[in-house]
Every structure is written in structure tokens, then in C-alpha cells.
Design goal:
single chain
């Protein structure tokens, strides 16, 4: 497995292996000779890059003379806000932070693999599962926060006498959502990454550029779909109508 390590993973395994094993012991897992995996380091790198960019942006915010980065972020905010209002109406504002965060994290994670020295962390199932479970927990917590104990009525169906039939169906449906989110994102990113790598190994001319462009398109679309489904789930869970 060592030959497949990224350069950043090799550095961490060579010099910070004890730190990685300490993290494994903390969550009750067995220690390993080389505890750091590519996708873990790539996730850390994505988060670090995003924190650095937004920390830099915060020092440059201006009402009278906004820079290009601020304009770009404002356009991004307007896009996410518009999509959220389409799904949730005017009640969308409290949830924009999560929608924007999950979208930009997945988007950058999908596209960072286009850089030859990196790979997309979202081509690994544990990463997409983590995103899916975060969304699953978020929309259920928001549903309980918005509706209290009446949130359980959403699982009972439109008529009380259908509750015995609708409740198990709704439970299975909700439990299937993290699986669906996980597989959709993972499968698309893994397939795209493998196709790009195959053609890069065959030729370095026009053909790989075409597939890299397709990979970029798929990465953007998958991030958008993940965000849109998250908005849909949150919108249904916080709805006061039965």
C-alpha cells in the first residue's frame, strides 16, 4: 500500500505516525504501521485551505470597495440563497450556513483531484458517508427543533389509521437517505477519477483534457445535487404542515 501513498501522506506516515495512532486509539481502533490514509490528509487539506481563504477574505471585506474574491463569494451566497428559497421559501435563512458549508466542502473535495499531486477525498466511501451522516443528523435535529415532539407525526402518514403502515415505510425511507447520498457521490467521483487516470496513463495530449473537463463537470454537478437533496430533506423536516 505504500506505493499508492500521496507525497503528503508519506510525510505524515514517516514523521507523524504516532499522532495518527493516538487518534485511532482515541476512537477505539487498532493502531497501524502507517495510520494516515490519503483521503484523511486530503480532507484535512481541503478544510485548511477553506479556512485560510475565508480568514483572508474576512480581512479584506469592504462595503465600498469589494475585491474580486468578495464578489465571487457574494455570487456564491446569492446562488445558495436562491436555491434554498426555492426549496424552503423565506424560512431558508437559518439553514444557509450548513447548505453553503456542505456544498463548498464537497465541491472543493471533488475538484482538488484535478491537481496531479492530489486526489479527491470524495472518491472514498468513508468521506461521502461522513457527509451523508452529517446531513442526516442535521435535518433530523432541525426538524425536532422546529416542530418539537410533533416531528414524529411526519412519519405517521396523512391519516392516523395509516400510521401502522406508514411508520415503518418512512423509517426505512429515512434510513436509506444516507446510503443513497453516500453511494451517489462516491460512485460518481470514483468512476470519474479512475477514467481520468487511465487516459492520463495512455496519453498526455488532448484526450485527458477532455476527460478532466468531464470530471470537473461531474464534480460540480454532484456537489450541487448533494446540496439540493440536503435542502429538500431539511425543507420537509422543518415543515409545519402535515
Amino acid at each position: 500500500m505504500q506505493e499508492s501513498e500521496l507525497w503528503i501522506t508519506r510525510i505524515f506516515n514517516d514523521h507523524f505516525g504516532d499522532l495518527g495512532n493516538a487518534a485511532l486509539r482515541l476512537v477505539g481502533m487498532q493502531t497501524q504501521a502507517r495510520p494516515w490514509a490519503n483521503y484523511i490528509l486530503m480532507e484535512i487539506l481541503v478544510v485548511t485551505l477553506l479556512m485560510a481563504v475565508f480568514a483572508f477574505l474576512r480581512t479584506r471585506l469592504s462595503v465600498t470597495n469589494p475585491g474580486k474574491l468578495q464578489h465571487t463569494c457574494e455570487l456564491f451566497y446569492q446562488f445558495v440563497s436562491g436555491q434554498a428559497e426555492d426549496q424552503l421559501g423565506h424560512a431558508a435563512k437559518p439553514y444557509l450556513t450548513y447548505f453553503g458549508t456542505i456544498f463548498i466542502f464537497i465541491l472543493v473535495s471533488n475538484l482538488i483531484g484535478l491537481v496531479p499531486i492530489f486526489e479527491s477525498p470524495t472518491m472514498n466511501a468513508p468521506v461521502t458517508l461522513g457527509c451523508a451522516m452529517a446531513t442526516f443528523a442535521y435535518y433530523n435535529v432541525m426538524g425536532i427543533s422546529a416542530n418539537g415532539f410533533k416531528y414524529i407525526l411526519q412519519f405517521m402518514g396523512p391519516k392516523w389509521w395509516l400510521a401502522f403502515l406508514m411508520f415503518p415505510i418512512e423509517i426505512v425511507s429515512h434510513l436509506a437517505r444516507p446510503l443513497s447520498l453516500t453511494i451517489r457521490l462516491y460512485a460518481n467521483m470514483f468512476a470519474g477519477e479512475q477514467v481520468t487516470l487511465v487516459f492520463l496513463g495512455l496519453t498526455y495530449l488532448a484526450v485527458p483534457v477532455v476527460f478532466m473537463g468531464l470530471h470537473m463537470f461531474v464534480g460540480v454537478v454532484q456537489a450541487y445535487i448533494f446540496m439540493l437533496l440536503t435542502m429538500s430533506y431539511v425543507g420537509a423536516s422543518v415543515s409545519h404542515g402535515h
